[in-house]
Design goal:
It contains seven helices and twelve strands. By secondary structure, the chain is of the alpha/beta class.
């Protein structure tokens, strides 16, 4: 008898067959005993016929959902979340290379908390090995920035906590209960390939949901720009600042200016 699905992995793709293949190979290599409780939903967001042929050939537990035309990141993830069967959604970019223990560390953080959590992780550039993401903070201009970016390690010391809270984490790799994601209406499709995750995290925090990074979970990330990734950046930023600019300023002044100062002082020592 097959076990019920607990984990729904969501991967939106548009072409980039090589990256998608490598991501899936790393998933099969490192999912371990959780495979029997998992499904993968790949959303084909308007790929070429060559890519479609590859995706249609993939075996279970992979399911492929096809958008008739390119709909963007928010719409694709929302669609898959509605189709998902698992208790937890694990959203992944297709240019990740997962590592041993990455999901165990994220699940440990979820299970240790008394409140619902949105859990991201540490992401290293596949090309340089340097940290690309270890949480997000807001800079002086109220823009979300990646903490730890371009450094060789997350901190010059071992992370003191398994979970470090931030106002936002990138949805390139995060874990959230399906009930939380759908209960908040998913990503706002007014954003197009940018700021969706930041908007969602701030909405979630207003409902008492904790947001942060599982510091002992890490993956490689090619950080490759998908087609259309930056096309709507100005509109996305304007919408985000209209909604959240005041809160982002408070986050910066109260919580994350010290982190920024830490990074600057650390950089001077490197």
């Amino acid at each position: 008898m097959s076990m019920p699905v607990r984990f729904s992995f969501i991967i939106p793709v548009k072409d980039q067959v090589r990256l998608t293949r490598d991501c899936l190979l790393s998933w099969f290599a490192h999912i371990g005993s959780l495979r029997s409780q998992s499904e993968i939903l790949i959303v084909d967001d308007g790929s070429s016929e060559t890519s479609k042929s590859f995706l249609r050939s993939l075996p279970a537990p992979i399911r492929v959902l096809e958008n008739a035309e390119n709909q963007g990141f928010a719409h694709s993830n929302n669609r898959a979340a509605q189709e998902a069967c698992g208790e937890f959604l694990i959203m992944l970019n297709n240019d990740l290379v997962l590592q041993r223990g990455w999901l165990d560390a994220m699940l440990a953080v979820v299970n240790a908390g008394s409140a619902d959590r949105i859990v991201g992780n540490v992401q290293r550039s596949r090309c340089t090995g340097r940290v690309d993401h270890a949480g997000k903070f807001f800079d002086e201009g109220r823009d979300p920035r990646h903490f730890g970016q371009f450094h060789e390690s997350l901190f010059p010391w071992d992370p003191p906590l398994d979970f470090c809270r931030f106002p936002s984490v990138t949805a390139a790799c995060w874990l959230v209960k399906r009930s939380v994601f759908t209960g908040l209406g998913g990503f706002d499709t007014a954003y197009r390939n940018g700021f969706e995750d930041d908007d969602f995290c701030l909405r979630a925090a207003e409902q008492g949901i904790e947001v942060g990074v599982a510091t002992r979970s890490w993956v490689y990330h090619y950080v490759s720009p998908s087609d259309g990734r930056k096309t709507h950046e100005d509109q996305n930023r304007n919408l985000f600042l209209e909604r959240w600019g005041s809160l982002a300023q408070r986050w910066h002044d109260r919580e994350y200016a010290p982190l920024l100062q830490l990074l600057r002082s650390w950089s001077c020592q490197k």
